[in-house]
Amino acid sequence: MDSLETIETAAAEQPSEITAIEEQASKTMIATDNENEEVPEAEQAIVQQVFRTKDEVVARVQEIAHSGEMGDKQELSLLKQLFYKFHTAEMQEAYQAFINAGGKADEFVPQIDPAEPAFREAMQIIRERRAAIQENIERQKQENLQRKLQIIERIQQLASTPEEANRTFDEFKALQAEWKEIKAVPAERATELWKNYQLYVEQYYDLLKLGHELRDYDFRKNLEIKTRLIEQAEALAENPDVLQAFNQLQVLHQEWKETGPVAKEIREAVWAKFKEASTVINKKHQAYFEAIKAREEENLQRKTALCEQLEAIGTDSLRTFADWEAVTQKIKDLQAEWKTIGFAPQKMNTAIFERFRQACDTFFEKKNTFFRTLKEELGSNLVKKKELVERAEALMESTDWRSTGDILINLQKQWKEIGAVPRKYSDELWKRFSAACDHFFEARQAATFESRNEEKANKEQKLDIIEKLKALAEQEGENIIVQVKALQQRWNEIGHVPFRDKETLYREYRAICDKLYEAYGASQAKRRLNNFRAGLQQRVEKEAGSLDAEYRRMQRAYERMQNEIKTYENNIGFLTASSKKGNSLVDSMNKKIEKLREELNLLAQKIKAVSEQMTSSPESGQSEANVAGQELSSASEQS
Q: Closest Cα to residue 306, out of 335, 346, 345?
């Protein structure tokens, strides 16, 4: 009996084929009240081949609701998942259309799905019917339980009165037949019932005192049945379909339970053979689900790796449409790989799918935000470039070559700084903008072609003036400066020369002019000094006493001029020549200093002349003036 109890307990603990299939399907099945779980890819493909629209799904659910059928749980779950898949796709399409029309995401209000009330109503009918049927099944199981308990109790009574055993044999057989007719009982009581039933049946047979032939006949019939069951159980080991073999084994066990005992001396041996055959199938069944579990663990690891890859994808560096599309394709590849991977363990399957889907949703939400922002930016750029086109077209006929050219060049720089515009406007705007710019610059080029020839002629004229000035520098005469000024006036009247030659020509011109004026200035200074000396002699003859006053006046002028030179030199120290304007101011002050020094030198010569004249005068004190005059002359020469 211990062996019997052990094997029957083991058999009872193994799931039936229906239970095993439901367990496996439930790992990825959409629950009745949860439309967000993952559906097996293979099952999705089958359903989608049959139901291609939401209306077909609703029609099928209504057909089941009105047929009076209980409905297959797996099919109902898949139908519900498919309905909400279509429903979500429609909502997403409506949302995208709303955004494309310029709406804001937080202002989107989804419309009520007109098919949803009908779908929910049909599903509610099916749920209520399934609940009622299940209630009837449970009630019937309880009734079966009570009847089997009564049968066990009656067999127990028959087995407790050996003297009555022979007379109640027919009743015993009837109870056995009734037991076989009674089917399902509550699962939690099934093993206990079987153990008690088998116990009292064997006790009854042990007490039975019928003729040996009748009892032996019954034992032989039972042995034949159990031998057949053993052979069938052993044959199941060759069946490649493990689930089917296990399911058939449960049927054999049920028949074994319903078959009476064999002779007591072989009872244990017969049961051992059946147990051995059952163990082979049970081990295969266990190995089958262990292999599934191992595959599921491996699948979980692979799916976790895909999640990690997906979550590691950054979007901060994505700046262009091509960047986003490249990453989008990578995510699509990960999604395609995900579909090739089987189920993960039941407790993790939904969670890992939610993790993967959340990572995908996060990326595509960022992508939608990027393109929504990009669309706004493209619209803003379009407005800016249209303004540039209009400004360029307004200036294209201008003849203010320099000013307008600078403006158009600045507009071209702005055009480059402004980003892209919608592709359908890009070519048209660029053609208009470039056409306006090209029109102006081509017109300017044509207009300035003659100007360039004129500039070349002006260059030749200015070179001729420079040569004439060089020739004057080699001559002497009173009228040289007059000729120089005439050539300078002619120089100023001549127009522009080529820009690249402008500075070179001017430097050469300025150098020869400075040389001429320097020579003229020295000559003039000498003449002025001679005239001063001659006038000084006349003044001495008329009024000798006036020399002293003249000397002091000139000495004061000399000191003022020295101070003025020092002031200019100090000011130069505070100026910078880093800019063109600053350089020009320094040059101007240097010229003033040079002119002051020339004047200072001339004044020193005059003071010396006065000093010499005073020395030759008989009045006392003139020798000091002479000494001072010599010192001033010496200082002037040194400066």
A: 335
Place of tokens 């209306």: 55
Helix (H) / strand (E) element for 436: namely helix 423-473
Maximum Cα interatomic distance, the chain, rounded to a whole number of Å: 195
DSSP 8-state symbol, 345: P
| DSSP secondary structure code for residue 567 in this structure | H
Contacts of 439 (CB under 8 A, 6+ apart): 396, 397
Q: For residues 315 and 368, what is the distance between their CA atoms, to the nearest angstrom? A: 12
Reported as half-sphere exposure (CB side, CA atoms, 13 A), residue 311 has a value of 12
Q: State whether the Cα torsion 619-620-621-626 is positive or negative.
A: positive
Q: Which two tokens stand for residue 532?
A: 């001063």
% of residues, the chain, pLDDT over 90: 14
Of the two residues 481 and 50, the one the predictor is more confident about is 481
Q: Closest Cα partner for 58 from 82, 33, 22? A: 82
pLDDT at position 301 is 93
Q: How many Å from the N-terminal Cα to the C-terminal Cα in the chain?
A: 141
Helical ranges in 474-498 per DSSP H: 480-493
- Identify the three-state secondary structure at position 87: helix
Which pair of tokens denotes residue 66? Answer: 């009105």
Distance, in Å, from the CA atom of 277 to the CA atom of 275, rounded to the nearest integer, reads 6
Dump strand ranges (E) for 30-172.
Answer: none
The Cα 268–Cα 289 span in angstroms is: 31
Distance CA 79, CA 71 (A): 11
Which residue is associated with the tokens 């120290």? 573
Cα-based distances in Å from 191 to 19, 249, 534: 17, 16, 156
Q: Is 605 within 8 Å of 629 (Cβ atoms)?
A: no
Listed residue (348, 356, 357) closest to 296, CA to CA: 348
Q: What are 129-136's contacts with CB under 8 Å, separation 24+? A: 129/65, 129/68, 129/70, 129/71, 130/70, 130/71, 133/70
At 187 the pLDDT is 86
What is the helix (H) or strand (E) element at residue 179, kind and residue range?
A: helix 169-181
Q: Would the pTM count as exceeding 0.85? A: no
Distance of alpha carbon 594 from alpha carbon 597, whole angstroms: 5
Q: How would you label 337-368 residue by residue, b for 16+ Cβ within 10 Å and e otherwise?
A: ebeebbbbbeebbbebbebbbebbeebeeebe
Q: Are 229 and 190 in contact (CB under 8 A)?
A: no
Residue 16: pLDDT over 60: no
The encoded tokens of residue 517 equal 């004026």
- CB atoms closer than 10 angstroms to residue 576: 9
